[in-house]
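Quick one:
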Amino acid sequence: MEKRSNFPGELVFNLLLMALGIYVMVTSLRIGFGTLREPDAGFFPFVGGLIILIANFSVLARESRKNQPLFPNRAGIPIFFMVTAIAACWILFMPYLGYVIMSFLAVLGLSKVMKLEGWGKPILLSAVVALFIYLLFDYWLYLDLPRGILG
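Output:
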């Protein structure tokens, strides 16, 4: 039985993500890159855009060698969209609920999507990640992130 490839659709998707990575990099350079010792506001978005660009380039390189679809069976497609929806909700609701609560909820949702067994382990993982994020940004980096209803 011959494998059916949906490579053209994935090609368009990866090229769009690569364009997004380039756009983020160019925009962050306009904001100001700074130096490695004293990064400006554009440093971290630049690194994020670079990661998006490199990751999608590697996917395209792999696909061109193997000519296999990104989702060889249909089971991965809903997971992809659920993870994307969780990331979008994390960004959209963070100003209202705060970064600690949204990080807790996002990690809880991601752990259930990735089929972490039971509820105890996902809740514990979410609480540890939320606590770490709180300590990282409030106490170690002194960054002011959206506190939402906790502010």
